[in-house]
Design goal:
The complex is a heterodimer of chains A (about 140) and B (about 120). Chain A has about 140 residues and is an all-alpha fold. Chain A has helices at about 15-40, 40-45, 55-70, 75-110, 115-139; one strand at about 5. Helix content of chain B is about 85%, strand content about 0%. The chains are: A mainly alpha (about 140), B mainly alpha (about 120).
């Protein structure tokens, strides 16, 4: 299994794509805050794991593949959708990490200082999501 | 809406947008694509809000949010699995599929709230 970083991919993303991600991310964050303010932390907490930015992210993946294939004269629609499917599968392992993140926040916040608690939670997300990703790749 | 609340929301908007953009960049450049996808399930909104919420409402408030977040994350997992399966099996438009499947998140999150969190 080969893991690599391809910075050339960044050139495929247009300024409009970057702006739309920023705006979507900001709006989802504000919406989660307003819901928590209105309905309290029990309901508000649910929305900390709302997949609001996944649809535009997956759409961008499909768009990139379609554009790449179009440059070589082909239609990449079906392949682009398959790529988006693979990305969504990856997101599902990230979501399992989110459960660990929530658990770590729940248990550590009343006990440890804020920064330590956040570091524990972020580590929990990283370890659990990548462990599940690795296991899934092996199956 | 008071100016302090408005400033708080503007601040959260800017932090949320920045955190989401940062994690999205990592998702873009990492290969294979499934590994990049893991970053689509990153705790972006939580990271953007927890510090401000902890300062405003206290650690116990954030702890309660963390407990509920587990329910939301379970719903996220179900949603991502459904989207992945439908896209691979039927290859519909990604935007339509991912948008129309959002109620899956709502149903599972509501069930988690009704059964466990309430």
């Amino acid at each position: 299994m080969h893991i690599s970083v391809d910075f050339a991919k960044l050139r495929m993303t247009t300024p409009a794509d970057y702006i739309s991600r920023f705006v979507f991310g900001g709006l989802v964050t504000v919406a989660a805050t307003l819901i928590a303010n209105r309905f309290g932390p029990v309901v508000g907490g649910l929305f900390l794991a709302f997949p609001g930015i996944l649809p535009p992210g997956l759409t961008l993946t499909e768009k990139h593949v379609v554009e790449k294939k179009a440059r070589s004269g082909g239609s990449g629609t079906r392949f682009g959708r398959a790529e988006a499917s693979v990305e969504a599968a990856g997101a599902s392992t990230g979501a399992l990490g989110l459960i660990a993140f929530g658990l770590a926040v729940w248990k550590s916040m009343p006990v440890y200082p804020l920064v330590s608690s956040l570091l524990i939670a972020l580590s929990a997300w990283l370890i659990v999501s990548f462990a599940f990703w690795w296991v899934r790749k092996r199956l | 809406m008071g100016s302090a609340i408005l400033m708080d929301l503007v601040f959260r908007f800017l932090i949320g947008g920045s955190v989401v953009s940062l994690f999205s960049l990592w998702g873009d450049v990492l290969k294979p694509k499934s590994l990049g996808g893991v970053f689509a399930g990153a705790p972006t909104v939580a990271l953007a809000t927890i510090v401000l919420t902890a300062n405003k409402s206290g650690a116990n408030y954030v702890a309660i949010e963390g407990r509920s977040m587990m329910g939301g994350a379970l719903a996220f997992f179900a949603y991502a699995c459904v989207v992945s399966f439908i896209l691979m099996r039927f290859r519909p438009s990604t935007l339509k599929c991912a948008s129309l499947a959002i109620p899956v998140w709502g149903i599972v999150a509501f069930a988690a709230w009704a059964i466990w969190l309430r």
